[in-house]
Amino acid sequence: MDRERSAEETGFKRDMLAALPNLRAFAVSLTGRHHLADDLVQDTIVKAWAKQDHFEPGTNMKAWLFTILRNEFYSQMRKRGREVADTDGVFTSQLATHPQQYGSLDLQDFRKALEQLPPDQREAIILVGASGFAYEEAAEICGCAVGTIKSRINRARNKLQEILGVTGEADYGPDANDAAVIKRAFAS
Fold it and tell me: Are the C-beta atoms of 67 and 110 separated by less than 8 Å?
């Protein structure tokens, strides 16, 4: 039994080695570069050796190896399509994100401001703004008219803007100092 397996392995290895020149030529035609082709052939041989139990003896070894090589090439190309070459660190040095602690502090401020609203306004804005209910559904839950809900929400929004000191879109996201720092980082 061991002799049969050894003979099969020897035949497998012999057939695989015989296909190397053709595999390399095919790899060069796919990659266009000799060093990349050599790497691709090596990856193919390693995969084929690991999966030799999937090869059906008596079938076309060369076709099987070419299929592995082609699939490996396309897998590598898909992977490279999602990667950015940044060997000198230029892209990495330009990455910047808004610090998370500001978002946490903003949320704390919002919660405090929400607590300062009258209960009917707080309930209305939470039902529509946070819970996603339609005005009609919120009106039904609160037992009042749709116009009343709209009025409560409008007054709640205005009061929240006043408490939080929000005057426009510029008040959201990084503050003026952070925005200037980020802008300078990307300008250089």
Answer: no
89 domain residue, yes or no? no
- Tell me how far apart the alpha carbons of residues 138 and 188 are, in angstroms, rounded to a whole number: 51
Alpha helices in 2-96 (DSSP H): 2-31, 34-50, 61-81, 90-93
In a domain, 158, yes or no: yes
pLDDT at 94 over 80: no
Share of the chain above pLDDT 70, in %: 82
Decide which of 116 and 5 is more confident: 116
Structure-token pair, residue 90: 């230029």
Domain contains 92: no
Task: For residue 47, give both structure tokens.
Answer: 């995969």
Q: 143 vs 2, which has greater pLDDT?
A: 143
Q: Residue 87 carries which side chain, given as an amino acid letter?
A: T
